[in-house]
Amino acid sequence: PATIYLKDYKEPDFLIETVDLTVELGEEETIVTSRLAIKRNDETATKLSLNGEHLTLQSVKMDGHMLTPDEYSVTDEWLHLPVAAITSEFSLEIITRIKPQENTALEGLYKSSGNFCTQCEAEGFRRITYFLDRPDVMAIFTTTIVGDGDRYPVMLSNGNLTLQETLPDGRKRVTWQDPHPKPAYLFALVAGDLAVVEDKFTTRSGRDVKLQIFVEKGNEDKCDHAMTSLKKSMKWDEEKYGREYDLDIFMIVAVSDFNMGAMENKGLNIFNSKYVLASPETATDADFDGIESVIAHEYFHNWTGNRITCRDWFQLTLKEGLTVFRDQQFSADMNSAPVQRISDVQGLRAAQFPEDAGPLAHPIQPQSYVEINNFYTATVYEKGAEVIRMIHTILGEENFRKGMDLYFERHDGQAVTTEEFIAALEDGSGIDLTQFRRWYITPGTPEITVNEKFDAETGQYTLTLAQTNLKAGKDPEPLHIPLKLGLLDVNGNAVPFSDGPFKGETEGVFDLTKKRQSFTFSGFSTQPRASLFRGFSAPVKIRQESSDDALAFFFAKDEDLFNRWDAGQRLASNILLKQIEDAGDGTSLPSAFLDAFAETLSDKTLDRAFTAAALTLPGEQDIAQKMPVVDVDAIHRVREGARRQIGLTFEDDWRRIYEECENAPSPANQPASSSRKLKNTALSYLIATGQEEFITLADSQYRKSKNMTDSVAALAGLKDINHPVREAMFADYYEKWQKDALIVDKWFTLQAMATRESTIDDIKALMEHPAFTLRNPNRLRSLIGAFASGNPVYFHDKSGDGYRILSGVIAALNKTNPQIAARLVAPLGQWRRYDKDRQDLMVTELEKILKLPDLSDHVYEMANKSLH
Ligand code: HT7
Ligand code: ZN
């Protein structure tokens, strides 16, 4: 397969000014008539090449003249048309036939639960008709949909509805016009028998926008939270960024078969139903949070992605990194900011750090790709967001806003590069970002080594930080890294800086720009303690020799809640790693840890959701990242041992907390979800004690529960044990919820992540369950994705069965849905991190994948990079 390079970017030879599409929906096939107004963009071009895949070409007319097949050429991927050198403008009419009913890849036009829908990003439009399917070709679209009005009473596309009629043959015809020029990847079409929930939003300039959420009938009562989230997002973008919505209607459609989370098509967002449908009985608090942030994310794309789009797909982080940053800011404003930051960083460390440390590492702006779908990665999205956050930190809120204002003003209506984005931020803020630009082209997570020196005689304290990055090539140029720093005295009080740029303040952002750099602070009678990278001010790993006492100090005292949580995580990791080294079982926990833990446990001033996060041990995969050779069994052993010990040591506290959170109302300013979080953390520790009484407690919680959060917590608490209560609970849950796909997904996930001896057999049996299918991405992720990414002990089972299960699924999906198949390869790509036996087993499966007949480019790229 061909590799595409950023350095080869060339402007399009031709531009498309307007597109007039007529889509005639049929049960066997769909006929697409596309009328294009084309304008020359390169004087020398003599050929127009249009992208097109899986299309049957019926006819081509140029300026009204029907072309004969010898006047053009068609391949599996292109339609080539000669264009006379003197022609500056011309029209094309192209008729193609497609079969959405047979489209299992869920790209282009396809059917989901009987409804037609589209997914065109990144290169799906070429599966609908021949087109210049690249984001720097922005056209004005008019879309006419024709079809059976009984089957498909709802017919939607981008923009405003301008015509609706019944044709003489009884079919329904509607026309939508989108006044905003857009790339084809933002095109959308939906047709089906859907219910609609409506509301309205009045913009700050006084315009009324109709808001509509379309869902399968029967789900109308699960749209409130999505609608509220949408209205909050619209308001927030006006207040925070001065961005107003620009059409009279904003529609969201929820579909059950969707490759990703959602899609920001202009005026017609299409969502995985997982990110729309929720009621307390059917969705967990985490689901509610996910909906709020994905609704916001897609809505925010209207300005960062749609009005200003990407010049080419190498610029993907321009819209995705920026929009993730914006949705994270929004969620922090709507909820507890520190809890949100902790959750964002947990996500980054869990998904992006391993990617950046492995064979699939790439900069947030990749320089080449085989298949662009493989680059919708945690690096482009989440690290991309961290890069924008660092710019925000360096510039400060006010200057960042000035830069963003200039970006919107300068580039509205354009398809631009990340360079143009940074230039606008520089020009708007007046702050030089020359060195900062390196973040865009540097793969790998920088490591920061920290050394401290204190001179008791002069009262000077010197911090020396050195940056390295093994993935960035030999002797890489240093990055510009913002260091948010605070100094604490022995009692944990913040100490104001006595000199320098932050004199008199207790926190400052320092610029790390050299490979090795020292900062000296004076005026101390005793050595201060440095709270470094507060709020995770840069996506780096800190290498610092910190004693348990020092970490326990920050865990108990740091006023920066992110660093307080992080110190607890580092302390716990260090202890568990030491236990692994000593072949321990996790049960002997040092008093420094237990004392600090107790302090947090009894601190009633903290948000309960924060307390829950602070009292949860680092995940097995977090600990794994700190081991030179990952030992999944030892990690599980010591972590579970420690959980049991913490459960027993603080049993009375956990009981008290459980009661308080269950029965007393949440403290002022704290949502009920914070109490549920802490209560369920207590439940999990109580169950970890191994006492029967707490299995009964979980059982009674499950039986009494009126909300999905508590039900799932009870199931999760018992998932790893062999007990009749466990079996009865899982059976009851399935029985009760079997008709609701999103709830059944949770049932699969909980079992996929169980650590019982029978887990592998359970997973094999679940793959044969009547409710399991490879065709639905949510269901597939719920079992196979959750197993491969969330069950290290059994995915890495010594038998190699876990690896074989995964590669078998990849093989089965390679042809039907290559995008999803390719996304499953990454866990095997981590093979270098394991012992020799496991390495061999994983490599064998990667080699098997590479030998598959008709291997898709998607899977090839991921497996090939993973292996070499
Ligand atoms: N911009 C959207 C990306 C997306 C996508 C990409 C490839 C294949 C399927 C897809 N569905 C959605 C989603 C977003 O980041 O907002
Ligand atoms: Zn996005």
Task: Summarize the structure in words.
With 868 residues, the chain is α+β, with helices and mostly antiparallel strands. The protein folds into six domains: 1-191, Immunoglobulin-like, CATH 2.60.40; 193-307, Zincin-like; 309-441, Neutral Protease, domain 2 (Orthogonal Bundle); 447-538, Sandwich (Immunoglobulin-like); 562-690, Alpha Horseshoe (Zincin-like fold); 738-868, Alpha Horseshoe (Zincin-like fold), CATH 1.25.50.10. 40% of the residues lie in helices and 21% in strands. It contains 27 helices and 32 strands. The protein has an eight-stranded mixed β-sheet with strand order 6-5-9-3-2-12-15-14, with no helix packed on it. A hairpin with a 2-residue loop joins strand 5 (56-62) and strand 6. Helix 3 packs antiparallel against helix 4 and helix 6 crosses helix 7. The structure holds (3S)-3-amino-4-(1H-indol-3-yl)butanoic acid (HT7) and zinc ion (ZN).
Number of strands: 32
Mean pLDDT rating: 98
- Summing up helix and strand content along with how strands pair, one would put the structural category as alpha+beta
Low-confidence stretches: none
CATH topology value of the largest domain: Immunoglobulin-like
Largest sheet: 8 strands, mixed
- Write out the CATH superfamily name of the largest domain: tricorn interacting facor f3 domain
How much helix, percentage-wise, in residues?
40-55%
Strand line-up across the major sheet:
6-5-9-3-2-12-15-14
What's the CATH C level of the largest domain?
Answer: Mainly Beta
Total helical segments = 27
Architecture of the largest domain in CATH?
A: Sandwich
| Strand residue content | 15-25%
Distance between the termini: 16 Å
Give the tally of structural domains: 6
